[in-house]
Amino acid sequence: MNTFLARLTTIALILLIAALLQLLGAASCLASGVPPGVTFGVADIGNGVRLHYAEEGHGTPVVFVHGSISDMSYWNGALNAFAPHYRAIAYSRRYNPPNRNAPIDGYSAIADADDLAAFVRVMHLHKILLVGHSYGAFVALFFALRHPDLLRAMVLAEPPAVSLLRELEPPHASEGRAAYRDIYRDMVIPMQRDFRAGAREQGVADFIDYVFDDPHRWASWSQADRDETMRDAHEWDVMMTRGTLFPRITAAQVRSIETPSLVISGEETYPFLRLIDDELAKLLPHAQYLRIPGVGHQMWMQRPLTCDENAEAFFRAVTEP
Fold this sequence. Notes:
Largest sheet: 8 strands, mixed
Oligomer: single chain
Helix content: 40-55%
Order of helices and strands: HEEEHEHEHEHHHHHHEHEHH
CATH architecture of the largest domain: 3-Layer(aba) Sandwich
CATH superfamily of the largest domain: Alpha/Beta hydrolase fold, catalytic domain
Distance between the termini: 65 Å
Radius of gyration: 20 Å
CATH topology of the largest domain: Rossmann fold
Number of domains: 2
Shape: globular
Strand content: 15-25%
Number of helices: 13
């Protein structure tokens, strides 16, 4: 009997240590600037997929979706800003830290949108308010298209819906088609080639050098900055070898989205994203458009107060009687 009890005690200790390590993994993801009152959790959304999240506050749920080479810690400040009036939740997408999910074929923003729907249901959030930045905003677009019953309103901060570039009308039609060709020739195809060859750092360099329009930008970064970026690049290990970086969304599909939307764009953002933002603001039936002066694609880092206040004001306007 003593031996049996000792074994049970050992098993319980192992399970406790495993749980603590899991929580520490989530905590380390938000280690820098963790808002007071934040709590961490892990949602089992089915099919063996588990998503780490952080939340703060009570009330109507606002879910934040991060972009590429990022994780839920991108939204540390937003959690604190929204918590006084909302249940603010940030989660890490399927292959971003500290998640450890098995790779699947066909991974893309569409799979992320379906993951988000499963997350909303498992967490019993019902209809959410949604904020997405960059690739997270692309996920939000597909979420609105595929799961409108789970969504009240959304904020889209520069989603890379690059397929829309092929559908622009004059006077921007030729500019849009040229931008689309340039993105695939100089970024997507090199990334696919390098990731499939196992040269993942070169694949990340392809992206960084392209978006900064500087062939030496990645090489100029410190080793610490490169290491941090590589830590968050696992989603591309899957997406660039077994999935699709930019799944197609059409102008007709965007027009069908009835969700109230706020499109946010930085006035100094990349030209191709400006074209996409302008088009989304025209196509979405219930869209408002905010262009923030003096900022680029990382507007939520450059002007967090401006972004938070405008997003919250938009949510109030479309949800309060």
